[in-house]
Amino acid sequence: MSQNKLMTGLLVGAAVGVIISLFDRNTRNDVMQKSKRVSENAKYYASNKDELKSAVQQQATRFQNLYERVSEDASYVGEKVNELKELTPQVKEMVADTREAFIDTKDAVVDSTRDVKSALKEENPSATSTVAGNNSSSSDGNSNRDAEYGKKQ
User: Fold this and answer.
1) Cα gap 130→136, rounded to integer Å
2) How does residue 133 score in pLDDT terms, banded at 50, 70 and 90?
3) Residue 80 near residue 88, CB atoms below 8 Å
């Protein structure tokens, strides 16, 4: 019994909504134009059933072609996703190998730099003392001269 009241209430509410919306002149004119077009199309296709059948078949063909294209695109995307899943571990491994190679190269450069510095120090041990001596003599030049002068006398 409550279901009957629900359906009755829905129908009455819909009818009242339609009547209220038709108070607007633009809405009323639009409804009239669309109703005329639908009526004309219905009459036309009622007298030309073959054309209606052809139009329905064309639409069905279009939807079928669209479905096939979407299916093909979905399978293509699926294949690419699977390829990406397979490549991801390989890419991770390549990145790790490249990182290790850069670290090894960096370590080799640091070692070479140390070797060059130590070789320079061994070949010219007075190079740093001469530079240091020049700096100390320029700041304290009189004491060196005085020491040399004292030796001569």
Assistant:
1) 10
2) very low
3) no
CB proximity list for 52: less than 8 A, separation 6 or greater = 45
Q: What is the pLDDT of residues 22-67, one digit of tens each?
A: 999 999 999 999 999 999 999 998 999 999 899 999 999 999 999 9
The answer to whether 31 touches 38, Cβ cutoff 8 Å, is no
**Tell me, what's the pLDDT at 138?**
45
Which one-letter amino acid corresponds to residue 105?
T
Eight-state DSSP code of residue 24:
S
Q: Give residues with Cβ within 8 angstroms of 128, minimum separation 6.
A: 121
Residue 121 CA to residue 1 CA, distance in Å, equals 107
pLDDT value at residue 126: 57
CB 121 within 8 A of CB 128: yes
Per-residue CA distances from 95 to 42, 88, 98, 108 (Å): 67, 10, 5, 20
